[in-house]
TrEMBL record:
<keyword id="KW-0378">Hydrolase</keyword>
<feature type="domain" description="Enoyl-CoA hydratase/isomerase">
    <location>
        <begin position="31"/>
        <end position="365"/>
    </location>
</feature>
<dbReference type="Pfam" id="PF16113">
    <property type="entry name" value="ECH_2"/>
</dbReference>
<protein>
    <recommendedName>
        <fullName>3-hydroxyisobutyryl-CoA hydrolase</fullName>
        <ecNumber>3.1.2.4</ecNumber>
    </recommendedName>
</protein>
<comment type="pathway">
    <text>Amino-acid degradation; L-valine degradation.</text>
</comment>
<comment type="function">
    <text>Hydrolyzes 3-hydroxyisobutyryl-CoA (HIBYL-CoA), a saline catabolite. Has high activity toward isobutyryl-CoA. Could be an isobutyryl-CoA dehydrogenase that functions in valine catabolism.</text>
</comment>
<dbReference type="InterPro" id="IPR032259">
    <property type="entry name" value="HIBYL-CoA-H"/>
</dbReference>
<dbReference type="GO" id="GO:0006574">
    <property type="term" value="P:L-valine catabolic process"/>
</dbReference>
<dbReference type="InterPro" id="IPR029045">
    <property type="entry name" value="ClpP/crotonase-like_dom_sf"/>
</dbReference>
<dbReference type="GO" id="GO:0003860">
    <property type="term" value="F:3-hydroxyisobutyryl-CoA hydrolase activity"/>
</dbReference>
<dbReference type="InterPro" id="IPR045004">
    <property type="entry name" value="ECH_dom"/>
</dbReference>
<comment type="similarity">
    <text>Belongs to the enoyl-CoA hydratase/isomerase family.</text>
</comment>
Length: 386
């Protein structure tokens, strides 16, 4: 099918390179997709998203394949998310259309994964950030290790947690999702297991045994796959210092209606309490884009009452609005400050929470303009598992 290639952006490398970016490992009754861009912590490109879509759809149709695995090729990372440096470069060259194709491809993949007919095992060893979580968490099994680091740091680069984040973050205990999204704070593997972001936990050293065991399985039975993952699993609990032990405090503060009220509650606590945690959380929020903070809070609040496809459709529209620069250039400015020039001094616009008007927020949640293609998810043929 040559048409699927013509839909790829023009910067996509020759097919050989694309195949190197997502490797395939075939076993008796399963296939593994291996994200393979170790130099950039397996950050996702447009060509990788298109290849994942093609592979997953062909594997789903293949009756010889019982289940599918996804993992990262490098020791350091599962996936550090979307390649925002690449997106930023395309935008600076006036290639917004290629960015839109990229987003559409990634969002479609998250929906395919969230409605996948076969059991799916994501092995989240190392960094699993932002979009890296998006392309793995909607699947059936999520195996984490003692080296897993999860975060959704998008507000720090003037963007919003996307690729289904408003769906899975809003379903975490209490207001933990709001806390993670507004602070970009990290969770380790034990914490991910405790709050149900992960289904299984194992120490890194046992991964080869788990992978060998999975490789020998001839089944499409989730119960068999689940018990194989449990076989080498470890019983772990979050450490005493874990933020999960502060869930009552988090609910009290991050359950507030607005970002301003959250900041006010933190400021009050920081002044009133000997606990340094409040001040450090406040610092993280104050580093972020005020616009991103407000859009992100509303996104998660809406996500609580939406299905996966509704969350993806809305987030896709919001992502296009961030890169359109109609309201603000915060995305490009954030990428510049944190990842390109690394001066860590972004000039946010608006520069304060007070400067972010209701009209600005409304724009990010309004329908896509008529001439923009909306996200076309195959909802009629893929029923989401509600």
């Amino acid at each position: 099918d040559e048409r699927s290639f013509s839909a790829l952006p023009s910067y996509a490398q020759p097919d050989y390179d694309v195949q190197q970016e997502v490797l395939v490992e075939g076993k008796a009754n399963s296939r593994a997709a291996i994200l393979n861009r170790p130099s950039s912590l397996n950050a996702l490109t447009a060509s990788m998203a298109a290849r994942l879509n093609r592979l997953y759809e062909s594997w789903e149709d293949n009756s010889d394949i019982g289940f599918v695995i996804m993992k990262g090729a490098s020791d350091a990372a599962f996936c550090s998310g979307t390649d925002v440096i690449e997106l930023n470069r395309l935008l600076s060259e006036g290639k917004a259309q290629e960015c839109k194709v990229f987003f559409a491809s990634l969002y479609k993949f998250v929906y395919v994964l969230g409605t996948y007919l076969k059991p799916h095992v994501a092995i989240l060893d190392g960094v699993a950030m932002g979009g890296g979580a998006g392309i793995s968490l909607p699947g059936m099994f999520r195996l984490v290790t003692d080296r897993t680091v999860f975060s959704v740091p998008e507000v720090q680069i003037g963007f919003h947690p996307d690729l289904g984040a408003s769906y899975y973050l809003s379903r975490l205990p209490g207001y933990l999702g709001e806390y993670l999204a507004l602070t970009g704070d990290k969770l380790n593997g034990a914490e991910m297991l405790a709050c149900n972001l992960a289904t299984h936990y194992s120490i890194k050293e046992k991964l080869p045994w788990i992978e060998e065991r999975l490789g020998n399985l001839r089944t499409d039975d989730p119960a068999v796959i689940g018990s194989s993952l449990s076989q080498y699993g470890s019983l772990v609990y979050p450490e005493n210092t874990s933020v999960l032990h502060k869930i009552q405090t988090i609910d009290e503060i991050f359950g507030c209606d607005t970002v301003e009220e959250i900041v006010e509650a933190l400021e009050y606590k920081a002044g009133d309490s000997a606990d340094k945690w409040f001040a450090s959380v406040l610092d993280k929020i104050k580093e972020a884009s005020p616009l991103s903070l407000k859009v992100t809070l509303q996104s998660i609040r809406e996500g609580r009452f939406q299905t996966l496809d509704q969350c993806l459709t809305r987030e896709y529209s919001t992502s296009l609005k961030f890169i359109s620069k109609q309201v603000s250039d915060d995305f490009c400015e954030g990428v510049r400050a944190r990842l390109v020039d690394k001066d860590f001094a972004p000039k946010w616009n608006p520069s304060s929470l007070e400067g972010v008007t209701d009209d600005m927020i409304g724009y990010f949640f309004s329908p896509i303009d008529g001439d923009e293609p909306s996200l076309d998810l195959p909802v009629s043929i893929r029923e989401p598992d509600v």
